[in-house]
Design goal:
The protein has 222 residues and is an alpha/beta fold. It contains nine helices and eight strands. The chain has a single domain, classed as Alpha-Beta Barrel (TIM Barrel), CATH 3.20.20.10.
Amino acid sequence: MSIASEIQKLQAELPEGVRLVAVSKFHPAEAVVEAYAAGQRLFGESRVQELLQKIPLCPSDIQWHFIGHLQTNKVRQLMGKTALIESVDSERLLELIDSESARAGVVTRVLMQVHVAREETKFGFWPDEFLEYFRARKFETLKATHICGVMGMASNTDDMDRVRADFRAIADVFRAIRDDSALALRGFDTLSMGMSGDWPVAVEEGASLVRVGTRIFGPRQY
C-alpha cells in the first residue's frame, strides 16, 4: 500500500473539521515528500535534531508539529520552526518556550499535554493541575506564546472501553476551559488525540486533530 493511497483514504474517512497530522518521525525526508505530493501538509516529529535535519530537505510550506517530549535544553533550537508544539507538559517548559519565543521575536503556538493514561512514563499535566493553571489565570503572564488547546494520549491497551474513557477525560478537560466564559480564551479550539490504532474513537470523543504514523508510513525505520 502506497503512502499516497493511505493519505487519500484517511482524508476520506475523517469527518469534516478533523485534521490529520502525518507522524513522520523515524521516517526519511523522501517519505515526507511523497506524502506532501498526495496533498498532506501537517507533519509530526518528536525529536528536535531529526526535525531540523528534515526541514531543509522538504517543501517550505509544510506545517511542522512537534509532538514528542521537549527537553528544556532543546527549546531554543525549535523557535520559529514549528506551526504547533503539541507537547507542552509543564509550567516550566511553557515559561521557557515563552521567554525563548520573545527572545527570537516569534509567537509560538502550543497545546498543553494532559495526562490521564495509566502509564507513569507518559508526560503532562494532571487534569486538576491543568484546570488550576487556567482558573488561576497564569496564562496571562505569557508574552509570546499562544495556547491553542489540549493534547493527550490514551492508555496503551487493547481495552477500547479504557481508551474511550481516557479520551473522554481529556475532552472533558478541554471543554471545561473552552466553555468557561470567565476565561474568554481566544483561539482555544484544538483537541489533539488519537493515533493509528485508536483515532476513530478519539474522533467520536471530540478530537479535532489526529496523529497517524504507522498506517501511513509503515513500521518505523530506526
